[in-house]
Write a structure and sequence with these properties.
Layout: E1 5-9, H1 11-28, E2 34-40, H2 44-53, E3 58-67, E4 78-82, E5 92-100, H3 104-114, E6 120-128, E7 141-145, E8 151-152, E9 168-171
Parallel strand pairs: 2-3, 2-5, 5-6, 6-7
Antiparallel strand pairs: 1-9, 3-4, 8-9
Helix pairs in contact: 1-2
Bound molecules: inosinic acid and magnesium ion.
């Protein structure tokens, strides 16, 4: 993995935005508790940073899904690799995602989780690439709207690498 990565959103900008999102969510759920569902592996970094800044009680669960297809293009066919450990029935659920691209992963997940009868279901994503949307999904909290570029870092990978970069970067050799 020797490709060059250019900073798109700095670590300071990401952390500042996550703080704002945590404040917004804490205000919305004042007096309640939230159940965060982090979608492995990409949203783990974001999910932890967000959870640390919430002022409402929060529980966490994890789900792993994979979409069949090539590395940079999502095919929309979603497979559950790891399901939730706990029931979400009656809970105020927030799905935590790293990025919404075509919208196919989230559209599938939303339907699947709504069928399990949570009290409410919201979606929170660090990044949104609206230019690439194929299925319209309503997103409640968006960190940054970004152009149609393949990005890495802060949990996002290219061939499983670069997840641990503390900023959001652009893969220069892909564009
Ligand atoms: P969607 O189903 O097309 O919305 O795809 C969402 C998933 O595709 C994300 O959770 C990522 O794993 C992956 N993905 C989409 N765009 C990017 C990107 O720019 N960098 C890294 N992964 C991406
Ligand atoms: Mg992902």
């Amino acid at each position: 993995m020797t490709g060059k990565v250019k900073v798109m959103i700095s670590e300071e900008q990401v952390n500042l935005r996550i703080k704002e999102m945590a404040e917004q969510i804490s205000e919305k759920y004042k007096g309640k508790s939230v159940h965060l569902i982090c979608i492995l592996k990409g949203s783990v970094f974001f999910g932890c940073e967000l959870a640390k800044r919430l002022t409402v009680p929060a529980t966490l669960d994890f789900m792993s899904v994979s979409s069949y297809g090539s590395e940079t293009v999502s095919s929309g066919r979603v497979r559950i690799l790891k399901d939730l450990d706990e029931s979400i029935q009656g809970k105020e659920v927030i799905i935590i995602e790293d990025i919404i691209d075509s919208g196919k992963t989230l559209a599938y997940l939303k339907d699947l989780l709504i069928a399990r009868a949570p009290k409410s279901l919201s979606i929170c994503t660090l990044l949104d690439k609206p230019d690439r949307r194929e299925i319209n999904v309503e997103v409640d909290y968006v960190g940054f709207v970004i152009p149609d570029e393949f990005v890495v870092g802060y949990g996002l990978d290219y061939n499983q690498f670069y997840r641990n970069l503390p900023f959001i970067g652009m893969m220069e050799h892909l564009s």
